[in-house]
């Protein structure tokens, strides 16, 4: 096989041979055969080898400075999702809510006896308000507003910590209706509360505990579950 | 940041995407020298190379979602290479200046240097390297990029194809032409040719001594 007009492989072909970049095996074999017979071409290949070896050991220039991005650039150029930005707040809120919930439930257990009797007192007062329309759904919605205010003490702390306050009232009021409902469905209040009626009505402690457990559930979802789900979604990207 | 240092590129990219933005600076630390060196050898201007390196990392950071796996190094260098070519074209009429590499010898990183050589050989090696570097600076930019990325930075053909946006065949032919041109330039210069021949004699002496020793 004749490689070039003068019989010798071109500089480029020798370079490709050295880099094992000749795709045609027939050409490669021809260059190989030529090199075995031609000292001049062998010398060219040897020169190329020296040049590439010296290229590989060229010293790297010194860096003028570090190119690390500043904290400000990292935050500004890639805004993180809101639930990641407030993740520490959610996590702290969930811790506080857990402590609060345990305290409330413990208190409830300790005062179980008297709470059953005394708890009925305010419940009666509350029911006096919606009494005329006790059976209508409008009343069922408006009724829980007072229990929330009543439970404002324990709930206030986690609510302050939650920046996404928008979701707190909707969630809690929706759930608040559930524990409040039994008071609606109970027959007209009798001035002398029977023991079984007292146990059916949630005490302020339990209402507070219900609110706190809702807050706890939400902060757990926002602070732990959502970031984890987001991370899994990201890592599934190609 | 220490917790990230050992993690592979793709794991760091995932960390950044899921909100751990500081993980990106581990990638910066890992590749800033490569990006800066390539930019400097392409542009032959330290200030431009510095600008382009900074810009490449900022662009890579904001466009990180468009990285689709493969070689992060190649993806990053592609950004830097494109930016460097834009700059080169906008400076087309700028007179060529010799490559200025401050502190080159002070910060020399010797890789693959054989066993201690005599001071004369060492001086010859440095001199020949300097001439190779000067010849490299005069190569056409596409061949220069191929030689820089393959012979100096050690990228694969596939990575270079990604960086320069051309086919594998084109990468190979650019590299072959670039090396051939380097050799032709050095062989045409008398001092360089003598230095090369000196190295050749050394290389030829080595094996013959070994073969005579084994007989």
Corresponding CATH architecture of the largest domain in chain B: Orthogonal Bundle
Helix/strand structural class of chain A:
mainly alpha
Strand content of chain B: under 5%
Assembly state of the chains shown: heterodimer
- Main sheet specs of chain A: none
Question: What is the ordering of alpha helices and beta strands of chain A?
Answer: HHHHHHHHHHHHHH
In whole angstroms, the N-to-C terminal distance of chain B is 58 Å
CATH topology of the largest domain in chain B: Arc Repressor Mutant, subunit A
- What fraction of the residues of chain A are assigned to beta strands by DSSP? under 5%
What is the end-to-end distance of chain A? 47 Å
Task: Set out the fold topology.
The complex is a heterodimer of chains A (238) and B (215).
Chain A: H1 11-18, H2 25-37, H3 39-56, H4 71-77, H5 82-85, H6 87-110, H7 112-118, H8 120-128, H9 137-142, H10 145-150, H11 152-161, H12 167-185, H13 195-200, H14 204-235
Helix pairs in contact in A: 1-3, 2-3, 6-11, 6-14, 11-14, 12-14
Chain B: H1 9-17, H2 24-43, H3 46-62, H4 72-90, H5 119-137, H6 141-152, H7 157-164, H8 168-188, H9 190-214
Model description:
The complex is a heterodimer of chains A (238) and B (215). Chain A is an all-alpha fold and 238 residues long. The radius of gyration of chain A is 39 Å and the shape is rod-shaped. Chain A folds into two domains: 11-56, no CATH class; 84-235, no CATH class. The longest helix of chain A is centred in the last third of the chain and has 32 residues, at 204-235. Chain A contains 14 helices and no strands. Chain A starts with 10 loop residues before the first helix and ends with a helix. Chain B is mainly α. Chain B is 70% helix and 0% strand. Chain B contains nine helices and no strands. Chain B has helices spanning 9-17, 24-43, 46-62, 72-90, 119-137, 141-152, 157-164, 168-188, 190-214. Mean pLDDT of chain B is 82; it is low at 98-115 and 207-215. Classes of the chains: A mainly alpha (238), B mainly alpha (215).
